[in-house]
Fold this protein.
Amino acid sequence: MMRLLSAPFLMIALFLAPLAVAADAAPPASVAEAKAAQIELASRLRSSDYRHVNARHRQRIASLQEEIATLPDAGADADLSRAQDLSAAIDGVLADAELDREVCTREKSTGSNRVTRVCRTKRQIAEQQRAVRDNGPLRSASGCGMETCPGG
């Protein structure tokens, strides 16, 4: 019984962990701080922890970082506000990229003791959970909606 309860909690933790990290990050207090944070992020993007960030996301992050780099260090409040907006946009791109991270689980198919490794992205897992929540497990598995299923 404990094994059945731990899987949903594990999935919830996998989804909320990146959000908790992003929520803890305070907006930059100065333009110079925003620039320093982007230099650190650029080095972290080269690590294996960020291999799920695809080329499209990396290109968007690079363009936002370039825009931050053009802001004057001793800028006015408008420059600080722009740096904070750009930093928030970069966080949004990273959050979107996090949904493309692949999660692998070991699952038994119904009626079998054979365990197989199933890999899905966090986006796919969320869509499957939403389909089950909205349509129920049998309708979401068969792919039919309320109108198209016989008897429903």
About this structure: The helical segments are 2-24, 31-45, 55-69, 77-98, 122-135, 137-142.
